[in-house]
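Project channel, design review

CF: Before we commit to the Halanaerobacter jeridensis constructs, I'd like one complete example in the thread so the newer folks can see what an input/output pair looks like. Taking Small ribosomal subunit protein bS6.
RD: sounds good, go ahead.
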Amino acid sequence: MRKYETMAVINPDLDEETTESKIERITDIIEDNAGEIVNVDKWGVKELAYEIEDFASAYYVVINFNGEGETLDRLNWAYNIDDDVLRNLVLRAE
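CF: and here is what came back for Small ribosomal subunit protein bS6:
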C-alpha cells in the first residue's frame, strides 16, 4: 500500500451533521476499497482566496490514508458525483 493525502473543500452552508456525514462517507469509501485511514484533520470553515461557485468560504478537511489504485479510482469517482464537494485533491505522500 502507498501513502496518500486528500483534501476536500466542502460547501460551507451545510449544517454540522451533514458536513460530518460527508466526511464519514469519504472515509467509508477509502476503507471499503482496500484503504486504511491514518488521520483525519478537520480544519473547519476558512476563507477562500477566490470564490468557488459563488462561495467566499468553505469547510476544509484533510485525510491521510494508505491505499491502492482501486481506492483512488473510487474516491475520485465519489468526489465527482458529490455536488457539495467544491474542490478536491489527492496526493501521494512521501
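RD: helpful, thanks. The radius of gyration is 13 Å.
CF: DSSP finds two helices and four strands in the chain.
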